[in-house]
Each structure stands twice: as structure tokens, then as C-alpha cells.
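Now read this:
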Amino acid sequence: MKGKLSERPFYLNEAQIRWVEETAENLTEEQKIGQLFCVLGDEYALADLQEMIEKDQIGGILYRPAPAEQIREKYRALDAVAKIPLLKAANLEEGGAGGISDGTLFGWPMLVAATDDDEMVERFARVCAAEGRSIDVNVSFSPVCDLDLNYLNPITNVRTFGSDQDRVTRFTEIYTKTLQEGGVAACAKHFPGDGVDYRDQHLHPTCNSLSAEDWYRSYGAIYQNLIEHDLLSVMVGHITQPAVSMDINPSLSYEDCLPASQSRELMTGVLREKYGFNGVITTDATIMGGYCMAMERKTAIPASIMAGCDMLVFNTDFQEDYRYMREAFAAGRLTRERLDKAVLRVLALKAKMCQIGENDAEATGNDTLTEVPAARWQKECADKAITLVKNHKPEVFPVTPEKYRQIRLITLGKDDIADGSVTEIAETLLQEAGFETERYEPFADDLHGTGNLDEKRLTLYLANYETASNQTTVRVNWCPKHALDMPRFVNEEDSIFVSFANPYHLQDVLRIRTYINAYTATKATITAVIEKLMGQSAFTGVSPVDAYCGLPDTRL
């Protein structure tokens, strides 16, 4: 293992290798075990974290988004007691907002994918790197490399670059290269690949059910490409891949196939041996149901390391998990060889990302704290990405005050966003353009026919049903009073449906005449949508997925 530190993906110099080896040699067995944990900082008091760093030598930490200065202050206090630099992680999936609450919500990856623009992906990653580095983040749990193949999956969705393998391969490569050049290690996820199952691995183990041949040709090829382009880390999900597991180990039965986060076949057999990956392998969060249900926890924690993992992300109870690891080491269920290899990789990543032993000429990410025009790029991305999916009534455009005296707004899902209120932002923009607006209140209405419909009124649906962990579906929920807020009279009155968070709402508004996907709810995307409705700019977005959900009646 020591000889591989100078090779892909670390490329460490002699001084860095010497630091890694000497640091490892000076750690006790208990401290080596501590290096294998990345904890969720929000779950602990600062004094407790300092003790975990000083005494147990934990390897990494992630804070949920909070104001940048607040996180900087916490890191300063932790750095003061850290004898070994910490891996400081964030989920920079959607921009700097994934790490700091006052960062830029550039857009979910599917928004970027809808531009079909390589340069936009590079800009996206530059914003992620710059704003992450502004709080000293050196690892991002991104990019999401999943293929969004199942429109019913409640968690992948707009977090992916879509379902087209060529685009996902190209964009994850650009994102990874740019992020790592910006001084932040990419940790690609969720190996072996989410987006096939319609269920959520946060709740229980899920399954990538592709055949081995199809998996190697799709998900496998995406990861192999990133590995060949110096990807530093991979996050393995609580997702089984039975066909591949049994291809690697023919003696396995279906029942024997473990989630990747506990599977030797997938971590060692595929990532290490088949694809030659030499970087750090982390689990996805071990607090998730998908991790907890596969085997008894005291067995699972050391089993993940033995199967090829190098770092465990989050804990249901850190001291308990730490004890499970120490007990397994004492009993021989965690071997010294595996412990040492995992620690060397974790330290190698630290040497790489903390610029240990580098001179100024060699140091990476020196320009990461220079400002990037995040707001301008965010606006340009939104303008290019908004996608007119379905338009069976082209005469609705352009939407003008002369054609429509009033715009009736119906907001579905979450109204509050980082920029304020979806309804208020849209209403203000429309009123400034000369429209009268009405916020529809279905409980104040009654069931009625078509005789009194206003031909000078346009109904504009603003849907913001965000993907989120721990929910089983992402569908439109209509008003329990006769579903009065649904597009009922699609043949008699003009209406436009805009989705800001889920590209698959046509399954629930299948006969709507005009449907638009905007992928992310920000002031930038709302503004871009209103401008396009009014004919001030063209629709140029390319749908990264089948927005018709493979259903023939959604095209009617």
C-alpha cells in the first residue's frame, strides 16, 4: 500500500509520503480506529467534538449548512486541538448552499444538465469549490453519479445529471476535475448506483437490479471513467447489486448479497480489483435504515472496513460504534492489515487536500478563494436550462397583459425557499410587468361548471415538491375539497404548469396543455420562467430525462 501513495489518485511527493508513514506509525491502535470516522458535527457539543478529536483522533467532520462565519468559528476551535488535520466535508451538490446557508444555491445538477453545456458544469463546480473552500471544506460528497432511470424514485431525481449515460459521464468528469482543481476532493456517489429502484435507501436497503452486463456498461462505466480521471474518493450506498455481486463471487445466493457499504464483492472486488481504484472509499451515512437493517450493527461497523471501506460516515452513537470497532480489532474480526491500509488512505487524502509537504509551486487550489461571479452564472444557467416540455396550445405564448388581464396563481408544495416565497417572487414579477394577479384559495371556492370562466385569465401553476430523504413518494397532492386546485377544465381555459423541483409531474397533470420544467426553485429560475412566458427570451433547455415518464397518455 505504501508504494501506491505516489500513484493515482494521490500522486504524493516524498515529503508527503514520509508524513503519512510517520503519522501512521505514531498513532495508537485506538487512534487509528478514530481516523476511520467522519462524524456529523451538529449532533455534538463543541467541547465533546474537541475531546473526540484530541483523544479519539476522529478523521473527519461534516456540519450541516449554517452561516459561513459560524462554521469558520467552529472549525477554528477544532483545528486548535487537532494534531492531525481534519477532513472537513460538505454536500456541495447544488452549489455553495450545500455547505453554508449564505452560499449560492446555483441549482440542482439536473438544472445544469438541462443546459447541455460543458462550460456551465465547469462554472457550477467552480462555485462549489470556491464557496466550500471559503469555510475550509476540503471534501465534497459529490458529484451524484446516479442515472435517474426510474421516475418514481423519490430521492435521486433533480439531484442527478439525468438519465442519459453519455451526459452523466461527461458532466461528472468535468465536475470532478474542476472541483479537485479548486482544492476540494470529490467523493462520487452513490456506488453502485441509485435511480433504478423506486425506493429510498435512507429508509431500507434498496436494489440496483440491472443485469451485470447492463451495470458494467452503464453505472460501472461512469465510475471507471472517473477513476481513470483521478477521482479521489467514492461513497458507497446502502444499495445492493445482486447480479454484479454474484458475478464477482459466483458462490453467493441472492440472499447473501449485501448493500455496497458492507459488500466485499462490490468495494474490493469491483472498485479495488476490477477498476483499480486506489482512493478513499467511504460509506454513505451509517445512520440510514439501509445500513442499519442489513446486519447487526456491532457486526456491520467493522465488517464495512473489512469489506474494503476506509471511512464510516456519521454514527447513531459515536462512542458505541467506536467501541464496536475496538472490540472487533481485539477479537481479530478487524485485522491490522485492513486497519492500516484504511488509515494510510485517509492520511494520504489529508496530505493531498491539506497541502502537507507541498511548496507554493506544487500547492493545489491556491486560487480557490478568489471570487467567482456566482450570481451571474446562476442567472445564465437558469436562463439556458428552463425546458418547455409540452406545448399543445402554442397560442398561449407570449403571455401578455393584453392577452390575459389576470394571472391566477396556484402554488403547490413548498412555498418558502432560500430566496423568499415562490408565490411572492412570481407575483411581484408579474405585477411589475403589468398583470393583475390572484392567489387562488381552493377552500374559499365551490365546485362549478364552465359557463362563467374568464377568457382573459390565465392560471399559472407553480409546483415545488422537493426531493428529500425519508419520504416515499414525490407526487402532487391536490386540495381535499374536490381537488379544486387541479387543472380540471384544460379544454376551456388557458393554464400553464411549471415544476420547480421535480421533472416528472406530468404523471399527475397528464392532460395539461403547456408544461415547463425548471428543476430548482430560486429567484433566478422563477425570473427566467416569467421572462420566457412573456416571450422575452426563448426556451432552450434540453430535458435530461423522459419527462413524459414513459406513459403514452402524458403526451396527449
User: Anything to note?
Assistant: The first helix runs from residue 14 to 25. Residues 360-369 have pLDDT under 50 and may be disordered. The longest strand covers residues 406-413.
